[in-house]
Amino acid sequence: MLLEPMKDASTCFISFSGGRTSAYMTHKLLTEGRDLFDRYIVLFANTGREHPKTLEFIRNCDEHFGFGTIWVEAIVNPKHGKGSEHRVVDFQTASRDGEPFEQAIRKHGVFNVSRPDCTRILKREPMEHYLKAQGFKPRKIATAIGIRADEKRRVSTADARNIIYPLVNRWPVDKQDVLDWWEDQPFDLEIEEFQGNCLGCYKKSRRKQFLQMDEDPSVFDWIDRMEKTYGMVKSKNGEPHRWFRNNLSTEQMREEHERIAGYYRRQMQFDFDVGGCSESCEMFESE
């Protein structure tokens, strides 16, 4: 259904990632940001690799706070140079088997820290395609991104789009502020920080990946299959693309996981723990 025509400047698109900070920002805008915009459109893009608790969290936000989130998934166009389109889904029909993500990998190859285009293909493009279908111009409509004041390093300055960061400029908060707020709510995002919203996200440090292997090693079966099935897609040097940091394959990560005792895994620290995936991917964030 087409939204009622309104000027782009009076409408704000909220990119709801399904994380605590993103939900906090959405609640702030919908309850205290009516002086900023006349209308808010809340969109969530499901990749098919979201943690099941993330999907439950988004449903709870809709039921308890009335977000009215529109759920979309990417339809990846297999033709070269063609961006993703969208389909509208809901909590019941949202993919949980990685199907949209596999579409993207089938076309573009295995993603990793050197080839980090999955957020653009699976989140940004389908959400923008939805907005275009509603008569909006994505570069004109304001886009609200859930990045906090203590995460300014994640703020992108490279794109000339109409992006706003309400939790940096309007209501500056840090991580503890957000956690404190959620303690007073009737529900919360019931996942550990090392898990993050995206199952096995390649941005995670080795320590976090190992903790995930301790918790649920089956998470990596899908990644292993992607590497073995599509590893050579878009390969330019005859070497397969691998998912994990330091160009490690799933098999190599499993072997290293077996060599390191569980207690020691919980003490491991790596420089790239800071800045690695801890909660959710945001559109346009700086890498």
- Give the spatial strand order of the biggest sheet: 4-3-2-1-5-6
Under the CATH scheme, the architecture of the largest domain is: 3-Layer(aba) Sandwich
CATH topology-level name of the largest domain:
Rossmann fold
Distance between the termini: 35 Å
Look at the structure and give the CATH class of the largest domain.
Alpha Beta
- Give helix % range: 25-40%
CATH superfamily of the largest domain: HUPs
Tell me the number of helical segments per DSSP (H or I, 4 or more residues long): 10
Number of domains: 2
CA-based shape: globular
Weakly predicted, low-confidence segments: 1-5, 270-276
**Structural class of the helix and strand makeup?**
alpha/beta
The radius of gyration is: 19 Å
Average residue pLDDT: 89
Number of strands: 6
Percent strand equals 5-15%
The string of secondary-structure elements, in order, is EHEHEEHHEEHHHHHH
Largest sheet: 6 strands, mixed
Explain the overall architecture.
The protein has 287 residues and is α/β, with parallel strands linked by helices. It contains 10 helices and 6 strands; from the N terminus they run βαβαββααββαααααα. A 6-stranded mixed β-sheet has the order 4-3-2-1-5-6. 39% of the residues are buried. Mean pLDDT is 89; it is low at 1-5 and 270-276.
Considering the chains and any ligands shown, give keywords for the structure.
single chain, disordered N terminus, six-stranded mixed sheet, 10% strand, 287 residues, 2 domains, Rossmann fold, alpha/beta, 10 helices
